[in-house]
Amino acid sequence: MTENVVVLGAGYAGTGAINKLQSELGGNARLTWIADVDYHLVLHEAHRVIRDPDVRSDITFPTTQIADPSTRFIQDEVTGLDVDERTVELADGDDVEYDHVLIGLGSQTAYYGIPGLEEHSLTLKSLDDALEIHEAVSEARRDATRGEPAQVVIGGAGLSGIQTAGEIAEFRDEHRAPIEIHLVEALEEIFPGNDPEIQQALRDLLEEAGVQVHTDDPITEATADHIEFDEGEPLDHDVLVWTGGITGRDAMENADLEKEHNRVNTGANFQTSDERVFAIGDSALIDQGDQPAPPTAQAAWQAAEVAGENIARAIENRPLRTWEHEDKGTVVSVGEKAVAHDVKPAFGISLPVDTFGGLPAQNLKKMIAARWIADVTSWNEARKSWSSL
Ligand SMILES: Cc1cc2nc3c(=O)[nH]c(=O)nc-3n(C[C@H](O)[C@H](O)[C@H](O)COP(=O)(O)OP(=O)(O)OC[C@H]3O[C@@H](n4cnc5c(N)ncnc54)[C@H](O)[C@@H]3O)c2cc1C
């Protein structure tokens, strides 16, 4: 009997899993890949598009370049998953039946019920989002003067917020534009939950780039022209970008699976409360003991390898592998600069210090993205993208 395997999403989770499944599945399985866009976006470099929209062609790869001729690709929005009927529901097309499905739909922005935030802020979760931020910043600077600079406020100082602030600072400098950039974080430190050494190194780079960092004061309300804080004075904005949190996709709302805020709970083998449904990446809360796996590209990429293999094993009724997230370290950009922390030895090179910047960190950041692009396409594509990474 032919098994129908369906993969949802074309991010790190979906693309990585498709790659693995294409090599793992034998002739008795049919593979269908569904995403709302017909390209894979290297989302962890999407902030580069805010500075320069031309970068988009270097960080997007058509699904036709990744899918084998035998893989059926459907471009449509997933609106639901019926685990009893074993169907994926689509916005435009007919339901798609599955024997096994992998959820890799990523996450959407969380607003935590802060009044006005959703209505008045831009988000960064897709290529279109990055282009919209570029347009908004460009328009704000056209109306600005040295006496009245454009106010760009970024809420949330995690990976996306820090890297967005860095790119807008580069944009300001390249265009000699009158722009003031504020990075706002509710908690005491930027890059919360990480080592104080990298937190400080990132803060130093941001301040050097002229980004005003505000910490330890949560936003309580957003309006069309300002944000209010729990304690501090209100801050005006011409552009407000909110990157302060993630939640699961609305498409999973009615799926009869164990989940929290629409992020689907899985065991360390990626199986959900329904044994035919697997989930990885930001869509999933993957059991790793005390904490679930982090919502990072790095984790999604690692998980995809094993998830693809586990679906092939499930079809053959073989035992599933368990996965352990390995933190290979962190590299974060602030414009052209970067900071690396706790990077595990690779390519036979071990590193004498925990936290470092300069050219080694910049090149490491490029190397990580290039390696991913090479994995899903080819080293030739990675080489072409190098200057934009
Ligand atoms: C600006 C930015 C910088 C980041 N920097 C880093 C970093 O430096 N290091 C790091 O490790 N992580 C970083 N991250 C986090 C990282 O990008 C995410 O953790 C990673 O993208 C998760 O992979 P994913 O495949 O689960 O989701 P995604 O990459 O978001 O992919 C989701 C896929 O599903 C598709 N999709 C979504 N909804 C639907 C639907 N309803 N129907 C059909 N298709 C749908 C999307 O189009 C996409 O193809 C960053 C994130 C951002 C936004």
From TrEMBL:
Keyword vocabulary terms for this entry: FAD, Flavoprotein, Oxidoreductase
Cofactor section: FAD
Keyword Transmembrane assigned: no
SUPFAM superfamilies: FAD/NAD(P)-binding domain
Molecular function per GO: NAD(P)H dehydrogenase (quinone) activity
Statement: the UniProt record of this protein carries the keyword Nuclease: no
Annotated Pfam families: Pyr_redox_2
GO biological process: aerobic electron transport chain
Domain FAD/NAD(P)-binding: start-end pairs: 4-304
Family in the record: Belongs to the NADH dehydrogenase family.
PANTHER family on file: 64 KDA MITOCHONDRIAL NADH DEHYDROGENASE (EUROFUNG), APOPTOSIS-INDUCING FACTOR 1
The protein's name: FAD-dependent pyridine nucleotide-disulfide oxidoreductase
